[in-house]
Amino acid sequence: MVWRISLLLSLCFCWLHKSQAELWEKDMTDEVYIEASTEGFESVHLECLVDSMRVKLELSEEFEGIFYTRGSYKMGQLPCFNDVESGTMAELTIPYEGCETKSKDDIYTNVVIAQHDDFLIFPGDLAFEISCTKSSEDESIASIGLADPDPSAKELPKHKKSTVTATRSVAFTPNDVRPKKAPKAKTSKCKKVKGTSTNKDEL
Questions:
Q1: Which H/E stretch holds residue 74?
Q2: pTM surpassing 0.85?
Q3: At 166, is the secondary structure helix, strand, or coil?
Q4: Smallest Cα–Cα separation from 110: which of 125, 89, 132, 91?
Q5: Distance between CA 186 and CA 184 in Å, rounded?
Q6: What is the pLDDT, as a whole number, of residue 152?
Q7: Are 101 and 108 in contact (CB under 8 A)?
Q8: SS3 state at 13
């Protein structure tokens, strides 16, 4: 009798453990989807320097999280990782030869991520692809576009990056996200037309 009870309890435990594992897998794969966020920031400014690129992120609300380049999370220190304790600004000066910066044909590219939680990426976290291109005139072309903060996600197609470009330095704002929102049409208020009243005695 005792061994039957033990067997029954073991089967119940295995079933419960399997159900919890399936529920966890469902929660993490089906319901939590991370994609490029277009809200929560005021602007991103990129400046292409001689041997590095300086990026400044201005957020819409108080930020207590981490700001780092993709692939540099484990480093946990500057220049590739900035643990922001408070404020609405986050900044990094990223060397061309370091911090997982990729280079090809004088184009230096990296992805910066603003993560609200110190350990996990959640929907609403921000990511931007930044690049500096050194031209033959000894000037740099700066570019900023949206990116997906999820390291396992595929690269965004060009039309979703909404990339902006300028010489030496460039700023990216939510207004640059394409397709741009159409301005609200102004509605004209109809004015009441005053009519003339007729007195019965005048008829």
A1: none
A2: no
A3: strand
A4: 132
A5: 6
A6: 83
A7: yes
A8: helix
What is the number of other CB atoms lying within 10 angstroms of the CB of residue 202?
A: 5
pLDDT given at position 157? 84
Token couple for 60: 């819409």
Q: What are the structural domain ranges in the chain?
A: 41-173
Rounded Cα distance between 46 and 106, Å, is: 17
**Predicted local distance difference test score (pLDDT) of residue 144:** 96
Q: What is the rounded CA–CA span in Å between residue 43 and residue 153? A: 24
Q: Report the chain (203 residues): mean pLDDT per 10 consecutive residues.
A: 51 47 39 68 95 95 95 92 94 96 94 95 93 81 94 84 94 88 54 46 44
Q: How far apart are CA 188 and CA 1, in angstroms?
A: 85
Q: Do you know the residue count of the chain?
A: 203
Q: How many CB atoms lie within 10 A of CB 31?
A: 7
Distance (Å, whole) CA 29 – CA 23: 10
Dump strand ranges (E) for the chain: 41-48, 52-59, 65-69, 81-84, 89-95, 102-104, 107-115, 126-134, 140-146, 164-167, 169-172
How distant, in Å, are the alpha carbons of 63, 74, 84, 192 from that of 88? 6, 24, 9, 49
d(CA 142, CA 130): 8
Residues 113 and 127: beta-carbon distance below 8 Å: yes
Structure tokens at 64: 């207590």
Mark residue 44 as left, alpha or beta (left: phi above 0; alpha: psi -120 to 50; beta: remaining): beta
